[in-house]
Design brief:
membrane; mainly alpha; single chain; 2 strands; 10 helices; globular; about 300 residues
């Protein structure tokens, strides 16, 4: 440590170093970001303005849309900006700040998906008591709890990151500041940081995973006992969009961090990172809007009122 120079700036490897790809990639990811903002803001707008959508299920969906905007905004603007620079430098403090918000939004989204599973469980398995159980105070408290858990989890990692020093000139092998990649370029002892990632990560993952998927065991059992085919179809319809989002998010995130070749960061790893950090927030509103009849009706009504024929 005595002969090592402490660095206050770090380098990101980015997506590609080929000059010919910089402008096309800039345009593609700028378009993706604008579409992500538009799609998620549109869902929030529809939920806020349409009284038929002001129910617990759509309250959680609107919160998910806000988290998608936040998650995308943490990584995509920086990625787009770096396409115009040869040296993708970022200060250590900015890097740690990006990690805090990225971890916060990811954990919040995972926790909210678990809350949405519970909401579907109550709606399908206890429909007569749904309004008593999922009242507005309960919904707000559930969302606030997910935020508190996410803030605490993110702060724990950030506080221990602030104690590290960085002296490696090796760039972070990603297009944003990712926690595991940041630890690899530290010249401090990172044993506590790695221990926290595994211990807190496994504890939180088991809890969130259980709360997300266990309700569906009961839900599927309840659906299979329904006598009416129409009721079964409606119940499956209300769950399919949520399950699709859950499987996409979990699948790409687990591949990024837990596949066998995770130590050597390859082009496939970067594509997986792009998918769950940038493309998933774009896909989520499409899944919910295309597979949700009430969202489509509200969207058609809004568009008709905006561009439809005006009374004489």
């Amino acid at each position: 440590m005595e002969n090592q120079t402490i660095l206050y700036m770090l380098a990101l490897s980015g997506l590609s170093d080929l000059p010919s790809l910089q402008l096309p990639l800039f345009l593609v990811f700028l378009l993706v970001y604008l579409m992500t903002l538009t799609g998620n803001l549109l869902i929030v707008l529809l939920i806020c303005t349409d009284s038929h959508l002001q129910t617990p299920m759509y309250f959680f969906l609107g919160t998910l849309a806000c988290l998608d905007i936040g998650c995308s905004s943490v990584t995509t603007p920086r990625l787009v900006f770096d396409f115009h620079r040869q040296n993708r430098l970022i200060s250590v403090k900015s890097c740690i700040c990006q990690i805090f918000f990225f971890v916060f939004f990811v954990i919040s989204e995972l926790s909210l998906l678990a809350v949405m599973s519970y909401d579907r469980y109550v709606a399908i398995c206890h429909p007569l008591h749904y309004t008593q159980i999922m009242h507005w105070k309960a919904c707000v408290l559930l969302v606030l709890e997910t935020f508190v858990i996410s803030v605490v989890y993110s702060l724990i990692h950030v506080l221990f990151l602030l104690k590290l020093t960085f002296c490696s000139l090796k760039p972070l092998q990603n297009f944003f500041c990712d926690l595991p990649q940041l630890l690899l370029v530290s010249c401090s002892d990172t044993f506590i940081n790695v221990l926290l990632i595994f211990s807190l990560g496994i504890l939180l993952a088991v809890c969130i995973f259980s709360l997300t998927f266990c309700p569906y065991i009961i839900i599927l059992n309840t659906i299979m006992k329904m006598q009416s085919k129409a009721m079964r179809s409606k119940a499956f319809s209300t769950c399919s969009s949520h399950l699709t989002v859950v499987f996409i998010f979990y699948g790409t995130a687990l591949f990024s961090y837990f596949h066998p070749n995770s130590k050597g960061f390859s082009a496939v790893d970067k594509f997986a990172s792009v998918f769950y950090t940038i493309l998933t927030p774009l896909i989520n509103p499409l899944i919910y809007s295309l597979r949700n009849k009430e969202i489509k009706i509200s969207l058609k009504k809004t568009l008709y009122n905006a561009i439809g024929p005006k009374p004489q």
